[in-house]
Specification:
single chain, alpha/beta, two-stranded antiparallel sheet, 15 strands, 14 helices, globular
């Protein structure tokens, strides 16, 4: 009779199945033997997604029958997808109205490492919202459950989207005492004027390592306020999305967030013809190692490359910059006779080749082109790449595609 497999080998087999994202095979592993069951359950329940009240009810029933399953959940996604016609869909998100969700969230709170709560809502104008989670209308049970997650012993990542709350101060105060390290705020709004109440204090502000935000006047002003309920002195990664209505004053003020601790900067914005903005000054980012630019460019001249060149010129000397990634959506309105008039990155290359950029190891550029087909000389131009950087030993990757 063949001897049983060692448990270490069984665990490795199940882990490989989980790595392949093969849920059907993982479920089959549950029925192989008792030695396969424990490891399979761990993977099956590690990430849980709830995107409807019906699904929440099923999960609530499951945890009622098997409470130990709740202890295996490390990541929870609570999602309410955008309805087909959001302008006519005036009901609140199911997340704020469901009776069973608070109990499920409360049960998971001590065990969660990550929470992604997303109501795919819209903001059409002044106090005109649809399909959002209104904090002041949510039940007390749901508020308590979410705060229990925010301040849970194992929580490290939280993402909140489509949340309507009274102020930035109220939002960040919910994380008082939280061990959260990464906070993503892809969209949140508030009705009233955003003010900082000096009488509201935070005893143990979290020290974030990663922050993702959309620039707004109130949020930038709050983050720079001495009473801010979050510490940014350990912030090593920051992702900034610049909306179309962002003022020059706020862009300038946001530069103060880019401090000495930042190592990885992601900048997401749109560049329009005739509206080249002021650059983000990177002078204080002495430890910056990676710059990732995600840009949609609506211009057929070289102003975008001038803009990036000016930004790179602000990088401190000496610096630790090792990698630059550029993902550009280029919207073509005409077929340029000479692509060098549109994609002239020689000035940028000159800056990146300076001795002060000695730490630079990689530059990757991805051009996604929509609109008019560009002349065949585009392939030749991109093929040349950045020859000066290549000669200096920098790894250069330049690709393009029509979409």
């Amino acid at each position: 009779m063949m001897s049983p497999l060692p448990q270490e080998l069984i665990d490795t087999i199940v882990d490989r199945v989980a790595d392949a994202s093969d849920t059907a095979s993982l479920r089959a592993c549950l029925h192989v033997s008792r030695s396969f069951r424990s490891r399979s359950r761990m993977h099956l329940f590690r990430d849980v997604r709830i995107d409807s009240a019906a699904q929440c009810a099923r999960l609530h029933a499951l945890f009622a029958m098997d409470p130990t399953a709740a202890t295996l959940v490390h990541k929870l996604d609570v999602v309410d997808p955008i309805p087909r016609d959001p302008r006519r869909f005036k009901e609140e998100t199911w997340i704020g109205r469901d009776d069973l969700l608070p109990g499920v969230v409360q049960q998971l709170a001590p065990h969660l490492h990550a929470l992604d709560l997303s109501s795919e809502g819209y903001h059409y104008g002044n106090r005109d919202y649809t399909h959002v989670l209104r904090w002041n209308k949510a039940s007390e049970a749901l508020k308590r459950a979410l705060v229990a997650v925010f301040r849970g012993p194992n929580i490290r990542f939280v993402s909140l989207a489509g949340v309507l709350i009274d102020s930035c101060q109220m939002l960040f105060s919910l994380f008082d005492g939280s061990p959260v390290e990464r906070l993503d705020l892809p969209s949140f709004w508030h009705d009233a004027e955003c003010r900082v109440d000096p009488d509201i204090s935070t005893l143990h502000p979290p020290r974030l390592q990663s922050l993702s935000i959309i620039l707004s006047t109130c949020l930038v002003n709050y983050l720079l306020n001495p009473l801010c309920a979050v510490h940014l002195d350990r912030l090593s990664r920051i992702s900034i999305t610049v909306p179309g209505n962002c003022s020059l004053e706020i862009r300038s003020a946001a530069t103060a967030i880019l401090s000495d601790s930042v190592e990885h900067l992601i900048l997401n914005e749109n560049i329009y013809f005739g509206e080249i903005p002021d650059v983000f000054t990177l002078t204080e980012c002495h430890n910056l190692k990676v710059i990732h630019l995600v840009t949609r460019v609506y211009t057929m001249d070289n102003s975008y490359w001038t803009y990036i060149t000016r930004m790179m010129e602000t990088i401190s000397t000496p610096n630790s910059l090792k990698e630059i990634r550029m993902e550009l959506d280029l919207v073509t309105t005409v077929n340029p006779n000479d692509v060098s008039e549109w994609l002239d990155w020689t000035s940028l290359e000159a800056v990146l080749a300076m001795p002060t950029m000695a730490a630079l190891e990689r530059v990757n550029v991805m051009l996604n082109i929509t609109g008019h087909q560009v002349s065949n000389s585009l392939e030749v131009w991109i093929g040349k790449g950045l020859p000066v950087l290549k000669q200096k030993g920098v790894t250069v990757g330049m690709r393009h595609r029509y979409i």
